[in-house]
Design goal:
The complex is a heterodimer. Chain A has helices at about 50-55, 90, 115-130, 155-160, 170-185, 190-195, 205-220, 235-250, 265-270, 285-290, 295-305; strands spanning about 10-20, 20-35, 40-45, 65-75, 80, 95-100, 225, 255-260, 270-275, 280-285, 355, 365. By secondary structure, chain A is of the alpha/beta class. Chain A folds into 2 domains: about 10-270, P-loop containing nucleotide triphosphate hydrolases (Rossmann fold, 3-Layer(aba) Sandwich), CATH 3.40.50.300; about 295-375, no CATH class. Chain B is built from 12 helices and no strands. The chains are: A alpha/beta, B mainly alpha.
Chain lengths: ~375, ~350
């Protein structure tokens, strides 16, 4: 795999939640790479560890109860897990941006939209101008947020002091205004001039999510993590936001980690897809290959259970059984109790670490099943 | 602006300059106008605001008039009609035109005593709660925000909370009495005694609110946007604490006055020669049946002050909350004006 080129390289990541009831293995030995400019979709059921993964990359997990047991998260060659806590703000926003699931509460109710977008713009401007230290020396070609040379200085001081001298009034405000307007226009907000002066509670859910996207984009992140950005929206608004994001993909070339439980959304948005089951990455590959030629029994069954409006005869072929509790993941392959292909070995051996799927056309199509060539035989 | 043609550059930069200065001026003006509108839209707040204003001005005058007249005229003129400690022969008089609130059993003019006590009582109410808010609130902010176990913040947080617990474990009144008694009689020692016992409640209150606010998604969103922790604390967390803290603070002013009077009551607080509302209530309590105007006037003074600050604080909360502020401002603008503005916007 193109290790050197990977923007994000996660290796053997395991994350637990230690709570009173026991230890929950939210992510188990997960490895994946995102190459610059690609959109990676992560699909999985509720409780499969999608959000844990999304929050772990910019170190937003609350620790405790979360605990990274092992693994490395290399972002542009820097191990995120090794970074001291005070450096983390420098990683976030301009390096790794994030769009959250709940747009309703993701904006501070006390400030106008202008102030909230302007804060993000100001964060990026200060870093671009070298007034705050930068984590990354090398600016890679895909990174359109190319900054000026890094100025080394009293970095700790910079990070400790609330380094935005206020959005303030007057000239500074006016200077930011044009840029804020640009980003609101970018996310297709009608009448951005009016929106500037409104408070979050005066906007609809869809509008708020657009503002959140504008905030994330205004920092020009090298990697954008979208954690189910449309799940909290109703279906029509969801379609609008997805269309918007698809359009933005063309305009803003940035790598995206798109997380969703919706196979259709992933098919629409992503270049590559990773299938997550009980914290294990069971299949990984280009979206088309994975969807047309699944090489893991779980993916196959999951795809089969998507309602199809042309097949109206008979019941929906749902997966039998249920997702195991993350506190009691079955030994061996986590999927074996529900798997039609399960053999003796599946309950003892955890299965291969993602390997080239047998019978797959693309070389990057990986599966964590010993019997990947037999998956097609599942009815 | 940078893209303007050279020949218009001068005028445009001048226009820009005026635009900026106008914008700066209009922020203040907008704020004051907004305040006025809110006050008008919410009559109770308006009453509270006016009362607070009157009380503050009166307190200032009571303090300043004797000093200024002493300097200018060489002899002291009191704002009050009588010397608060003068004992006239008109003892036990009901309210009349010469003694507005009557006189007490020793012939002291109650109106003069109440007015003289105003600055002291405001200072007690404001000062003690203000100190508690600053110290307790500051400690609570730190203890609530940096509470990760195993970090320096976690240790500091633990120390703050345990020290607070020690103070809270004592019944605060008993502790205050003990401190006041050991320091000796006087206004200063009594204030110090209440001061020492008052801040722990604010630590607990603030910490609780911080814990609630810091887990809000918008705090996570700000963190994800690369905003530094200190800025998150002051800009995103503190701002959303203001409303509950302010309401508690204004209500607390009354509680402090009552507690303070209790210390005076047992005889270790303010000396009887110093007029203070709480001690006056305790002093006149015996005359509730025979000379009710004495105790009622002093109690009324506390009541009006507490009411004024409560109403004002409630109104301030409304102003701080964007949701109610917008509604208030809309209510404050006459509907005819709104219609006119709408018509103008359409045209």
């Amino acid at each position: 795999m193109q290790m050197a080129e990977a923007l994000l390289d996660i290796r053997g990541l395991s994350i637990d939640y230690e709570v009173g009831a026991g230890v929950f293995h939210a992510i188990s030995d997960l490895s994946l790479q995102i190459t610059p400019g690609r959109v990676l979709g992560i699909v999985g059921e509720t409780g499969s560890g999608k959000s844990t993964l999304a929050h772990a990359i910019p170190r937003l997990l609350q620790e405790p109860p979360a605990r990274v047991r092992s693994g490395r998260i290399l972002f542009r060659g820097v191990d995120v897990l090794e970074l001291p806590r005070w450096k983390l703000p420098l990683l976030r926003g301009t390096g790794i941006g994030m769009i959250f699931q709940e747009p309703i509460n993701s904006l501070n109710p006390a400030y106008r939209i202008f102030d909230q977008v302007a804060e993000a713009v100001a964060v990026r401007k200060l870093r671009d101008s070298g007034q705050t230290p930068t984590l990354f020396q090398a600016v890679e070609p895909h990174d359109y947020s190319r900054g000026k040379p890094v100025k080394t200085g009293p970095a700790l001081l910079h990070a400790a002091i609330p380094h935005l001298p206020g959005i303030g009034t007057g000239a500074r405000r006016e200077a930011l205004r044009t840029e804020v307007l640009d980003y609101l226009k970018l996310v297709r907000i009608n009448d951005p001039e009016t929106i500037l002066d409104l408070y979050p509670h005066e906007l609809s859910g869809g509008m708020r999510q657009r503002v959140m996207i504008a905030i994330a984009l205004s920092e020009k992140p090298a990697l954008l993590i979208a954690d189910e950005p449309t799940s909290a929206l109703d279906i029509t608004i969801q379609a609008q936001v997805l269309t918007l994001m698809k359009e933005l993909l063309e305009e803003v070339r940035t790598s995206i980690l798109f997380i969703s439980h919706d196979l259709g959304v992933i098919a629409e948005m992503a270049d590559d897809v990773g299938v997550l089951y009980a914290g294990h990455l069971v299949e990984f590959g280009p979206v088309e290959d994975v969807y047309t030629n699944p090489r893991h029994p779980y993916t196959k069954l999951l795809l089969r259970s998507v309602p199809n409006r042309y097949k109206t005869d008979g019941p929906l072929p749902a997966l039998t059984g249920s997702v195991p509790s993350l506190a009691k993941i079955p030994p061996g392959c986590p999927f074996h109790p529900r798997c039609p292909l399960a053999r003796e070995i599946c309950s003892q051996d955890p299965g291969p670490v993602l390997e080239r799927a047998k019978g797959a056309s693309a070389s990057t199509h990986l599966s964590a099943c010993y019997f990947s060539e037999e998956v097609a035989t599942i009815g | 602006m940078t893209e303007t043609a050279p020949q218009t550059r001068n005028s445009s930069s001048r226009a820009e300059a005026t635009l900026v200065s106008k914008a700066e001026a209009s922020v203040l003006r907008d704020f004051l106008r907004g305040l006025l509108r809110v006050l008008r839209a919410n009559p109770l707040t308006f009453v509270g605001f006016i009362l607070v204003l009157i009380l503050s001005v009166l307190a200032l005058l009571v303090v300043l008039v004797p000093v200024v007249t002493q300097l200018l005229l060489g002899h002291t003129i009191l704002l009050t009609p009588f010397d608060p400690n003068e004992l006239t022969t008109d003892y036990g008089q009901p309210p009349s035109t010469s003694h507005f609130f009557g006189t007490d059993n020793l012939g002291g003019d109650i109106f003069s005593r109440i007015l003289t006590a105003l600055p002291l009582d405001l200072a007690i109410g404001f000062g003690i709660t203000g100190f508690a808010l600053l110290v307790g609130g500051g400690l609570g902010l730190v203890a609530g925000f940096w509470d990760r176990p195993g970090t320096i913040g976690g240790v500091v947080s633990l120390v703050i909370l345990r020290v607070t617990d020690v103070f809270l474990a004592f019944p605060s009144l008993v502790l205050a009495l003990a401190i006041a008694a050991s320091l000796g009689r006087g206004t200063g020692p009594a204030m110090l005694a209440v001061l020492v016992t008052w801040w722990p409640y604010y630590v607990r209150l603030t910490r609780g609110e911080v814990l609630a606010v810091k887990h809000q998604p918008y705090v996570m969103a700000a963190r994800a946007a690369g905003v530094s922790e200190v800025r998150i604390l002051f800009r995103h967390v503190l701002r959303n604490l203001l409303e509950p803290l302010l309401v508690y603070y204004t209500l607390d002013i009354g509680t402090v006055l009552v507690t303070f009077s209790t210390i005076s009551f047992v005889g270790i607080g303010v000396p009887l020669s110093v007029p203070e509302w709480g001690s006056m209530v305790e002093l006149y309590r015996r005359f509730l049946q025979t000379q009710p105007w004495t105790v009622l006037s002093a109690g009324g003074a506390i009541f009006v002050t507490v009411l004024a600050f409560s109403l004002f604080g409630d109104g301030l909360r409304d102003i701080l909350d964007p949701r109610s502020r917008r509604a208030l401002v809309q209510a404050a603008i006459p509907s005819t004006l709104m219609a006119k503005a709408a018509a103008a916007a359409e045209a």
